[in-house]
């Protein structure tokens, strides 16, 4: 079974480097989101188009591990291509399911359309990094800000505007949600779909990139899920 690693918006597969050795002996495939790295862009940039592009590259029967927007795109791919994956891991993806948390998320989408959107992006990413390894956090944020805005802006808007509940309810593959910083209620998530197992990594204080700052906790949760 291939483990496919999909990073978040403005991010890159190297950010999974701390967990890759622990995924052995399965083969590992890292994918860039469209318009990121050397990956060709899609037009228009929609979650559906991004998910379909990823689905073209994923070997059938894979376990897809998606961080943040990579997880949202993985969710869309799993629903649109229900026979593609053997499992799905959503790593701190922005997928709130309670009405209050969903309202907080969608209310931010309008700011992405305004003239100060890049400052909003930078502030959001810096504030979500957490307290561990600040120099590494600066490297990650710099990479996000250097990514083509034509790839970043519409995709970020799509994620913020999305109501994920119908997609989560429609999942038909075993799914693990690893919460680290996102406002996602584990009990509400499990009630929405019993195929979804939720693990809260919040007490580890790892911020939004736990695969870089708390890889041991991520690998432990993945190990339990894969057994």
Automatic annotation (TrEMBL):
Q: Which UniProt keywords apply?
A: Hydrolase
* Domain AB hydrolase-1 positions: 3-220
Membrane-spanning segments: none
Keyword rRNA processing, does the record have it? no
Keyword Transcription regulation part of the UniProt annotation: no
* UniProt-recorded Gene Ontology molecular function terms: hydrolase activity
PANTHER family assigned to the protein according to its UniProt record, in alphabetical order: HYDROLASE ALPHA/BETA FOLD FAMILY (PTHR43194), PIMELOYL-[ACYL-CARRIER PROTEIN] METHYL ESTER ESTERASE (PTHR43194:SF5)
- UniProt name for this protein: Alpha/beta fold hydrolase
Q: Which organism is it from?
A: Kineococcus halophytocola
């Amino acid at each position: 079974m291939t483990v496919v690693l999909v990073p978040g918006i403005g991010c890159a597969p190297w950010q999974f480097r701390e967990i890759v050795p622990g995924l052995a002996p399965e083969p590992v495939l890292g994918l860039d989101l469209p318009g990121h790295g050397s990956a060709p862009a899609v037009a228009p940039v929609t979650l559906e188009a991004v998910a379909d592009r990823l689905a073209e590259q994923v070997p059938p029967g894979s376990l897809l591990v998606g961080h943040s927007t990579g997880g949202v795109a993985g969710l869309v791919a799993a629903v649109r291509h229900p026979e593609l994956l053997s499992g799905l891991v959503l790593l701190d993806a922005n997928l709130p399911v309670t009405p209050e948390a969903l309202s907080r998320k969608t209310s931010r989408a309008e700011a992405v359309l305004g003239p100060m959107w890049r400052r909003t992006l930078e502030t959001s990413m810096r504030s979500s990094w957490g307290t561990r390894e600040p120099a590494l956090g600066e490297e990650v944020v710099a990479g996000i800000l250097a990514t083509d805005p034509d790839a970043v802006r519409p995709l970020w808007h799509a994620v913020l505007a999305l109501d994920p509940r119908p997609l989560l309810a429609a999942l038909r593959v075993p799914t693990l949600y690893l919460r680290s910083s996102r406002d996602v209620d584990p009990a509400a998530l499990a009630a929405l779909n019993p195929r979804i197992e939720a693990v809260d990594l919040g007490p580890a204080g790892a911020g939004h990139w736990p695969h870089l700052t708390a890889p041991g906790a991520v690998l432990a949760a993945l190990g339990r899920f894969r057994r």
